[in-house]
Amino acid sequence: MKLYSAKGAPNPDRVTFFLKEKGKLDEVEIIELALLEGEHRSSDYKSVNELARVPSLKLDDGTVIGESRAICTYLESVFPEPNLMGRDGLERAQIEMWDRRVELMLMMSIAGWFRHGHPRAAALEAKQSKEWSEMSEEQTLKTADYFDRVLERTEFVAGDRFTNADITLLICMNFGLYMRCKLWEGRPNLSRWFEAMQARPMAAKD
Asked: Does an H or E element contain 14, and which?
């Protein structure tokens, strides 16, 4: 398998962090693309993913899977242990619910803040909007408060064990650093959770 990725970008990191937690990163060939240099828009890569988006997973038979969540779903079937996406229908639904909440409520707001507010992101956005960036920043901080309250009730995002939802939340914490914002600071439950995540395989430096 070949994984077309871009280290440091949120969605590609979701997949590589997932593989790290599975202990299977070395079993997939990683091809890094430089997004800010536009390598994902090259004709070679568009022959892999016509939408010019990363990540993409190319299987040995030539099949290509795009979208980070879909790639992780496939990898869960190939490398079932440790289980990260649910052991039965109910747990799978609960983990997906929390994963989607992190993605739609937090990752998307940070993306708006970054893509419209960071000078280097001008290479990714045709026209940056300062107003959109400011609105996204405000929403990001409110949503971080929400997840701090969530983690007051549970040890992990989706309950009493580490799951894919925790991977997505850590990706968001890292994403916020591009805007010089440590979202866990001043939020005790999020800080407790973040500190625990630093000891996990996904946080290990390559």
From this structure: helix 10-22
